[in-house]
Amino acid sequence: MKSILTLSNTSWLTTRLIILSLCVTAFNVSATELTADQTLNSNFEKLTHAFEQLDLTAMEDIYTEDAVYISETQDRGIIIGKENILNLYSRFFNKIKRKNAKLEVDFRILVRSIEPNSATDIGYYLVRFHPGKESGEPVSEFAGKFVTIFTKDNKQQWKISVDSNTHTAPHFYYDAKPVPNLYYGRQFIEATTKE
Question: What's the start-to-end Cα distance of the chain, in Å?
Answer without folding.
Answer: 89
